[in-house]
Amino acid sequence: MTVTPTRQDPLSPESSDLLRTARELVPTLARNSEQGERDRRLPEESVKALVDGGMFKLAVPKRYGGHEASLRTLIDVSATLAEGDGSSSWVVSVCNSVAWVVSLFPERAQDEVFGADPEAKVSGVLTPSATAERVEGGFRVSGRWHYASGAWHAEWALIGFPVPDSTGRIVDQGMALLPATDYTVEESWFVAGMRATGSNCVVATDVFVPEHRVLSVPKAMAGEYPPQRTGGALPRSAFVQFLTGAPLVAPQLGLGRAALDLVTAKAADKAITFTFFEKQRDSAAFQLRVAEAAQKIDTAHLHVHRAAADIDAAAARGESLDALGRLRARSDLSGAVGHITEAIGILLTAHGAGSFADASPLQRIWRDSGVGARHAILQPEMIKEMYGKALLGVEEQISPLV
Prior knowledge:
The protein is of the alpha+beta class. Helix content is 49%, strand content 14%.
């Protein structure tokens, strides 16, 4: 059984094709998931399958041969891939979210990244963990950036850095595009879950970055993009919310569905130890747990899809979401991850201690979901506080990521 959320909005033919392709890739990703964990990077067979299926150009502008898909489609496709492997979904959704950021840059930078190869993969870390010097025509940048998901497979990296003026005074926070020839990848990703994402450290030393490959983070968050930008509505999406919904939340939806499918599939054959139930499915207590988990997974989908609908609709109108709308979207997305975490915990308990056997895919789902849910941008209590302040008209801000 595959649990598929009901869509209230009609799918475009292109979205239907992308979802169909993603569904066809699930068996390959699942088959390679153990190797990915051992190697701490995606297996080449999986990467090739994802490239051949067009999964790395979901958010690439159409003028370069990309799909320029809506946030809702990107979320649904990424969630489907996660049913096969959480790490594969994470890398695909991160690379696409960074590809979307590239679409905000001047067209000269976009041409350099996607002009020759619309399948170009871009990893990204916006944390300004670097030093920079303004020079003629741009900047010289040095730094170390954790954690660059998909860095092993990327041709480019998007990195954050503090922007100095000619005197060295920091005047802005920027993000810059570096070709893979300008940096190295240092192995540092030794973690409990999402192991195959290869979210290692990108290292660059005294690299020249031309002005056209630099964009202001505050201006991007405010929707102030270069005037030469062309294309459809997608680049007008809310910045922080897009970068949360696509890479961080979408994989969680698929992991929740995969856990539910596994537990319900085994329920007809697995007994409940120390009881007279020869089949878990016959126990009312088990039925209640499965229903509760399914309800939480459904709730997560509803919140994520509401956020995506708000973001996509505003972009299509050429408008920016107001502060309350942006914070509601962040609350929807962060809260959805919490529902998935709770649902997977319920399913692990219902299924029993065998969930944690190395041979069980459930333990990898649990680890992948648990690591992904702790991403710093999700911080549920902080987001609730921000949303509560907005609802009550309290002007005090505790984060720039509104």
